[in-house]
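Page 42, continued from yesterday. The earlier attempt failed because a stray header line got pasted into the input along with the sequence. Redoing it now with the clean sequence only.
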Amino acid sequence: MAGSPFRISDDSGGIVLGWITRIAVIIGIAGLALFDAISIGTTAATVSDQGSVAAMQASEVWLQTKSVQQAYNAAVASATEQNPADVVATKDFLIDEDGTVHLTVSRTATTLIVYRIGPIKSWADISRPAMGKSVN
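This time it went through. Structure tokens are written below.
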């Protein structure tokens, strides 16, 4: 029966299984990187928007009270109301004569990998300048 077409093969599929494992690992790593990239991108966009809203709130309070501290407090309250992890920097908080408020809002993005790797850990720290003026 040596030349029989119905001979059972000794192939166990090791090569195919090896390639499938490699592909699965590559897709998994790519998925983790994509998650982190999307998280950092969406955090940057929301921090920027939340900063603009906080600046407009601070401008409104400034126009009513002319108190820098109350305007800053309003900016912090607005930013943390939108996301409790938001931080409004004190050193970048400025108010123009016309009531336009300039500030910087920061937050650390939720990532799976980036925040664990020392050289790229800072990529998860998002800081965006914003400005706003009340229309009142």
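Notes: The chain has one domain: 14-132.
Reminder to self: strip header lines before submitting.
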